[in-house]
Each structure stands twice: as structure tokens, then as C-alpha cells.
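Before the break, one more example. Copy the sequence into your notebook; we will annotate it together after we see the structure.
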Amino acid sequence: MDTKPCIICVAITGSVPTKEHNPAVPISVSEQIESTHAAFEAGAAIAHCHVRNEDQTPSSDPDKFAALKEGLEKHCTGMIIQLSTGGRSGAGSERGGMLSLAPDMASLSVGSNNFPTRVYENQPELIDWLAAEMDKFNIKPEIEAFDLSHIFQAVKMQKDGRLKGPLHIQFVMGVKNAMPVDKAVFDFYVETVKRIAPDASWCGAGVAANQIILNEWSIAAGGHTRTGLEDNMRIDRHTLAPSNAALVERAAELCDKYQRPVANWQQARDILGLPLRH
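Here is what the structure looks like once it is written out:
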């Protein structure tokens, strides 16, 4: 049994959930800071962040990201801040407009795939530009792998110098029309990363009811895991999650089940090679 510390990433808001879906979804910057602080105290070491407009629609406003980053640094000292460059929040280079803020990490999708109602398009030129901006500001990418090809593409980008290693790869499973939740595929992802990127770390993220499944698979297999209201708004079929912290606590319970200590922020930074900047 693998007993190394498990990093819990909390995806606090995302671009889709609203308060109509679950009143606990934090929308304003102050709500996001408060929700993240509670999740941090519950064991999350990474905060995956999106920002929203007042009407709850997605935003890529660098000023909103700056205010959120400043608040998290003040109230969640040491927590790893990861900003999203996801495609629902903007188009083209707008998606990376906040990278000059130099967060610890940022998400990076290195290929396209289908989402429930549209194509999540990541053109090669945009991928290269985002990767170059992350390199320029010394930001560690989290490779969001929605498909097996994305793992191979990330390794190729590392080998040709577009990405610095070691890689951190997140398997995203359960998005409608994309990679389903399948244990044999998950196991193949893990073995593939170990084979072609042996120095890489990896994380598992599942959507909706699959969140707890990917939490357990990832923790049991010695990886890291992601939870939070961005991906899932329920504790079970009948119960809305009362907070991001409640979902973090659920993941922490699985760590205990598999005798994996929950990584504190110092351990998470050591694992990912992210010294404290401020």
C-alpha cells in the first residue's frame, strides 16, 4: 500500500454551477475566499480557481483573478493557487490574460475534445502560447487530460522544451461526450504516465456522481485527487453538498481509509517543486 501524502485539490467554483444549482457555490471574490479558507482548513492544499461576473456568468477578468489571488494569499497562507485557463471563461489569448499575476500553477489543456453541448477547442497555436506564458512567469502547468492523446502530447511538449518537467497530469473523467469513467482506462492512464513520464505526478478528477469514484481510485492507486463544487454539487443523490469543505472532508476520509496522509501545503509544495514565493 502506498502511504505517501495525497494532495487534495479543491475546485471551488468553475464556470457552470450557479447558486440556483446549489446555494453553496461561491460566486463573489469574498465568497470564494471564505469557501477556500474552509476547504484549506479541511485539508485542501491546492485551490483551482475561476472567477465570475456579478450575474454569475464566467469571466476571465485579470482584475478579478488578482483580487482573488491576493485574498487567498492573505487568508490561506501557503496554499497553492492554481488559476484556470479553461475555454468557458474566454476566447483565445483572453484565456491567459491573468498569467502575468504569476500564480503557483495554472491549468493547461493540450488538446481538444467534446463537451456536453460544444467542442472544447484548444488550437495548437493557443496551447503553445499559453505554455510559453506559463514558462515566462514560472508557473507550473497542470495538464488537464480529457483523452489519452493529451498525455502523449504533454510528454512530447516536455521533450521538445515547450513544457518544463516534471509534469503534473490530471485525468478528467466523466464529462459527457468525453472520456467516461472506466476503471480499465483509468488503470491504463496511470500505467501510461508511469511508463512515458516516470517523474510525473498525477491526479484524478471525476464529474458529478463520479467525483467520489475518482477520489477513491486515485487515492488507492497512490495518486492525488480533486474535489469541489465545480465538478460536483452533491454529497449523494438526495443531498446537496453544504460546502467545498464538506467535499474535501469526504476525500480526506478516503485518504484515511487507504492509510494515505493528507498532504499539508508544505508537503504539497515539496511534491510539486513549488517554493513559496511570497
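The chain has one domain: 8-272. The two ends are 36 Å apart (CA to CA). Try to locate both features in your own notes.
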